[in-house]
Amino acid sequence: DIQMTQSPSSLSASVGDRVTITCRASQSISSYLNWYQQKPGKAPKLLIYAASSLQSGVPSRFSGSGSGTDFTLTISSLQPEDFATYYCQQSYSTYFTFGPGTKVDIK
Amino acid sequence: EVQLVESGGGLVQPGGSLRLSCAASGFTFSSYSMNWVRQAPGKGLEWVSYISSSSSTIYYADSVKGRFTISRDNAKNSLYLQMNSLRDEDTAVYYCARENLDSSGSHYFDYWGQGTLVTVSS
């Protein structure tokens, strides 16, 4: 199975900060990488698919990049509603495994 | 508007069974593959099972293989998860999620239900 790791596991940031979250796959997954945002008590929400495609309705401050084994999610200017946990997910293999998550909270 | 509504969760004893349902609306259910994803309390997301649009292809995570059965009824726009031989570690919120596919062949879960809580405890 493909294993996914994320770093950092948590971070504290201020409104307006640029935030970068990294996701690494245990083997090459081409660009088959998705990013989700989850707020407490809510279902995950798709932000980015295919490594860099912005899901409809998602603000343009979110962007994704990478291919192969290393990927990043960037929030260009953190907004109050962005404090949440972010998960990457590979869709290269049959089992669509998720990363362990990165919690973004208020500094 | 796409909607996915799970039901059927609850408290069950270890070794017991439960059947979850996911009612879909707002899209052509029979055209989409579907998945179940779970989240243990305070933990991350774990993919559980996949079913293709016609039910011809089914996959399970190793952690539930042989105990859980995914199925769907396209006439009723419904997805199911039959869970048998439940264990403490199956305690989680269970989400159904629609799988979409883009032109490059990339799969992703674009719509999720609100989740239903399954608690396995004596």
Please give a structural write-up.
The complex is a heterodimer of chains A (107) and B (122). With 107 residues, chain A is mainly β. Chain A has strands at residues 4-7, 10-13, 19-25, 33-38, 45-49, 53-54, 62-67, 70-75, 85-90, 102-106. Chain A has no helices and 10 strands. Chain B has 122 residues and is an all-beta fold. Helices cover 0% and strands 54% of the residues of chain B. Chain B has strands at 3-7, 10-12, 18-25, 33-39, 45-51, 58-60, 68-73, 78-83, 92-101, 107-112, 116-120. Chain B is globular and about 45 Å long. The termini of chain B are far apart. The model of chain B has no long low-confidence stretch (mean pLDDT 97). Chains A and B meet through strand 4 and strand 5 of A and strand 5 and strand 10 of B.
Question: Separation of termini of chain A?
Answer: 36 Å
How many distinct beta strands of chain B?
Answer: 11
The sequence of SSEs of chain B as H and E is: EEEEEEEEEEE
Proportion of beta-strand residues of chain A = over 45%
Helix content of chain B: under 10%
Q: Note poorly predicted spans of chain B.
A: none
The poorly predicted ranges of chain A are none
Number of helices of chain A: 0
